[in-house]
Structure formats: C-alpha cells, structure tokens
Amino acid sequence: METPPPWRVLEFYSGIGGMRYALASSGVRAEVVEAFDINDVANDVYEHNFGHRPCQGNIQTLTAGDLDKYQAHAWLLSPPCQPYTRQGLQKHSADARAFSFIKILNLMQNMSFPPQMLFVENVVGFEVSDTHDQLLAVLSTLNFNTQEFILSPLQFGVPYSRPRYFCLAKQESMCFPNSSVNDKLLRTPTCLTLNTTRTQNSYDQNEDDLEVVCNPIRNFLEAQSIGDKECSAIISDFKEADECTPIETASHDYTVPLNLIERWGNAMDIVYPESKRCCCFTKSYYCYVKGTGSVLVTSKNLKPVPKENLEMSSLNELGLRFFTPQRGRKFAFISPEFPFSGSHKPQTTVCHAG
Ligand SMILES: C[S@@+](CC[C@H](N)C(=O)[O-])C[C@H]1O[C@@H](n2cnc3c(N)ncnc32)[C@H](O)[C@@H]1O
Q: What is the active site of this protein (predicted)?
C-alpha cells in the first residue's frame, strides 16, 4: 500500500519553535510548511534551530486566501497568553493581544481548504475565557470534535511544574482513538498514552501524588565546564533590575551571588538534585528572584531540607546556582520536551552564548 504523504502543517505564533520540536519528537509523519511570528528575535532563534525563517508579520493581517494556498492538514497554535493569565487583567477577547487568534478562527470559516486538525496551547485560565467559547463555537460550526486537557510535565515524569491548557480538534470524519472523551476537559493524559500504568496515570492526579512517580532533577542535569569568557558574555547582558527582588550582582558564572542569597534567600525556590519538582521558569529568571524559577543546590551530599527549616546562615553553604539553557541551542526550551541543564558540581557551568 502506498504511504500517504506527510501532513502539511502550519505553525502559528511559532516563537522559538516549541511546537515544531514537539511535533518532530512525536514521530508523526508531518512537515511544517510555514510558521508565522511577529517577533524578529524569536524568528532568528527559530531559524537557528530549524533552518527555516518563519513568515515575519502580524497574523491578524493574513487572509483566507493566504492560508488556503498552503492546503495544510493541521494547524498548531500557541497564541499570546497574557489576556488569560491569572496575574494579568484577564480581559480575554477584549485584550488586543487576543485579536489575531480570533481573526484566524473566523478565517477558518471562510476557507476553501480549512485544516482538518488543530492543536491549541495556552495558559490555565484560557479554558474559562470567552475566547475559548469562541474557539469551541467555530470548531462546532465546522464539525470538529475536541478533546481538551490541562496537563503538567510532572505527569510525564519531568520534574517541572508547569500546567498548561491544550485543545486537540479533529474534523468529525477523522476519529480520535478514544472518542469517549470527546468534548471533555481532562486533567490526566491517560487516554492519550498507550503504554501507561495505573500509578502514573490515575484519574485524580494531584501534584503531590505526581512527585512520587516523577524523575529527580538529577536525571536531567548536564555537567560540563566551559570557558569563563562565554559565560561572562551572557551574564554581562543581564539588565539591572529596579523592582522588588532584583539580581544586583551577577557573578562570573551561574553561581547565585552571596549578597543575593543574603538579601533574597527567603524568596528563592530552592531545589536539590534529588527534588522531583521545580517551579515554572519565566522570562524574568536571572533578573528577579521571586516566582521566576528555581535555583539548584550544588553542594554535595546534602539531604534535602524543607525550605522552612533552613536557617538563613545555612543558605550560603548550599552552593546555589541558576539553571541554564539547554546546550546546543541558541536559547533554551524549558518545557516537557526540553530537559533543563545545570550542574550539580560547584563552579561548573552549562550554558550557551546567545
Ligand atoms: C506564547 S508565545 C509562543 C511560544 C511558541 N510556541 C514557542 O515554542 O516559542 C506567543 C508568540 O506569538 C507571537 N505573536 C503574538 N502576537 C502575534 C501576532 N499578532 N502575529 C504574529 N505573532 C504574534 C509572539 O511573538 C510569540 O512568539
């Protein structure tokens, strides 16, 4: 029997290409025929990573005709999350950053070759927004089935707490393997994975249970020394911050400076190589301490101690260091598919000059 051609895929809001990387690692026969992003720097990184420069511009200006010409089977979309984040104003569809997504949802209804499959990713909070209502309304008009999920890397054995909303949508003629969960929002990947054990995928997964089955951070660390020159090139780029928890002094490597520990140690999320969780890394990591990502204990043979039991004076002895981008890529991916780096040897660094 003749092998069908690979799916033609469009990647909207391509950023640095997380969706493309995930698609490739899923093993599906698919080809990203075009990617779209407005951000030049993200497009530089994408080009560096994949050898293809995304279409630079505002997705809001695309027409049905523009998209028809790709005759794509599947669309991957990770639209801006700011309209839906809990920390934001939660203006949802009234936020200008949501307009382009709503525009392409509407375009789908006017296309000669609309996609047969959609994959949408966003923050937790999207699922209760009016944009979400519009997404489901358009998909229903076009006779798609949907399966929705809120999933965290912890559920896949990766010690990283980052729950995200995902929507899978397929035209009715293309069945989901497990149609009993159509139109449902699930908080477990059970129905997606074939080789699962009950322990790893029970229906009532809460974060504490997941830590038990998660791999320790140690399993994801790389230890590698590189020259100070390359590291200092990165560190010197960190901007002086002027908000509540700035990193005032960057050391020559990724060691957390002692003065920072003394001043802000209580606000740090401290993890050990044996820990089975670290918190979500944000773009303010390295610039601010609180809520921006975890720091790693590098001193050897220390038993993990609950943060509340740590004396301020003993924080200095932990040999704290920042996590660093995955080697070999211009910028880091820190997501289910992208193990983070960080040495558990003091003064040993893994980084990549961007
Ligand atoms: C949540 S990020 C996507 C992250 C991406 N999945 C990745 O792996 O890096 C949203 C992306 O949408 C882009 N973006 C936001 N509004 C846009 C618009 N109106 N047109 C094109 N790109 C836009 C941003 O530049 C950003 O890269």
A: 81
Give nearest CA residue, ligand 1 atom 5: 15
Is there a single domain that holds both residue 187 and residue 105?
yes
Distances (CA, A) of 153 to 206, 270, 283, 309: 13, 19, 19, 28
* Full-model pTM: 0.81
pLDDT band for 303, please (50, 70, 90 cuts). confident
Would you say residue 331 has pLDDT above 70?
A: no
Q: Which of 157, 191, 213 is the last residue of a domain?
A: 213
User: Which is the closest atom of ligand 1 to the Cα of 59?
Assistant: 20
**Starting at the edge strand that comes first in sequence, how are the strands of the sheet with 320-322 ordered?**
269-271, 294-297, 320-322
Confidence (pLDDT) at 224: 41
Residue 126 Cα to ligand 1 middle (Å)? 16
Same-domain check for residues 160 and 303 = no
Query: Residue 155 has which token pair?
Result: 């559920």
The reply to whether 81 belongs to the active site is yes
Task: Give the chain's domain count.
Answer: 2
Ligand 1 cavity residues, CB under 6 Å: 13, 15-19, 36-39, 42, 58-60, 78, 80-81, 100
**Which atom in ligand 1 lies closest to the alpha carbon of residue 11?**
6
Among 31, 108, 16, residue whose Cα is nearest residue 337: 16
Is 349 among the domain residues? no
Domain that holds residue 307: 217-322
For 136-187, the pLDDT digits (tens) are 999 999 999 999 999 999 998 889 899 999 999 999 999 999 999 999 999 9
Based on the domain organization, do 246 and 172 belong to the same domain?
no
DSSP-derived 3-state class of residue 151: strand
Residue that terminates a domain, selected from 158, 180, 213:
213
Tens digits of per-residue pLDDT, 102-141? 999 999 999 999 999 999 999 999 999 999 999 999 999 9
Closest CA to 168 of 103, 100, 115: 115
The best mutation among 38, 100, 329, 335 to test binding of ligand 1, ranked by most ligand atoms within 8 Å of the C-beta, falls on 38
